[in-house]
Amino acid sequence: YYIFLFLSILLITQLSSRLINRYGAKKVYISSMILGLIQAGVLILVGSSIVEIIVPFGVLAGTGIGLQAMSYSVIVGYITNNTDTTKFLGLKSSLMNLVSIISIPFITSLISYYGSYQISYTISLIAGLVIIFLVSKMLIPMPTVSVISSNYRSLMQIEEVRIFAATRLLYGFFNGPMWAVLGVVTYIFIGDVSKWGYISTFLTILSIIGTYLYSRISNSSVRNALATTTTFLFASVALLLATNWNFLFFMIYQIVVVLLNSSFSLHYEGIIYTLVNDNDLIRENMSSVLSMGELAMGVGRILPLILLLIAGFTFENPIILQILFIMISVMPLLILNRLGSIIPHSSRYATIHS
User: Fold this and answer.
1) CA 97 to CA 209: how far, in whole Å?
2) Helix H or strand E encompassing 28
3) Of 217, 196, 297, whose CA–CA distance to 262 is shortest?
């Protein structure tokens, strides 16, 4: 499922830039949400029989996410005017987590009460309709550039684009396995939907606190220091988990993952938005550059999962899981190292370089 999901995301993001240039980011984003409604409808109709159509369902989900990823990036750039994006992302993350605090225990309790996931799909369908209505009210201008004037090869001559593509590839190595494996492993350790909901709520509350505190930090040097500290902490705890594969250390690992997402992920996304918007040529070819980033991240997501299949991965084998968690833990460190290689040719990059 995840291989076809990520492969679809990779392919569709290459088409999304052209669709955005032609129809605008808002229409493309709404189209992605309509595909999300179709997914919810399919789940309501087929229920647990989804396993019989899991591959086409993965393609459908990947198509929706691929359309959403590119259009969302363009919309964020417009809303923030490409300034102080980290604060905006922190606010967005906090609001989403605030909703999760209420929705996760409520929905998981309903699932346990009714003994069916149908109620969750119905709620998702209603939420999707509300999102489409709200986005339709936003005033997002059409792109001023209707064609992509530079190809990938010429854009790769720009140092910022090379760094962007390289870190996106590494982020894919980190994000893909985490996306595909972490939730299942959590459920295996807990073994109950209601308990999983309560633990997720606790982690969500922690995420809100962490994201809020991090977004309130105005000093970029302090942000950088915290992001670096959490990456080292993440790698250290992953090593502990690999040598002590039990529920206690796994929960500690989950808490550190929340801290990582509340600092490193916001720090990285903020730097990347700044990086690609500080160059006139990149701004003129923003859709193409974002498409390159999605291509690199898609490759990074898919390759580890293919290797896991070749290695005969199963969730019953903790050895492979332990090795996987160690490999994942290194990726944020490699990303920070790559960002540290940026030549400090402007004051924005001086802090990152130091």
Assistant:
1) 10
2) helix 25-46
3) 217
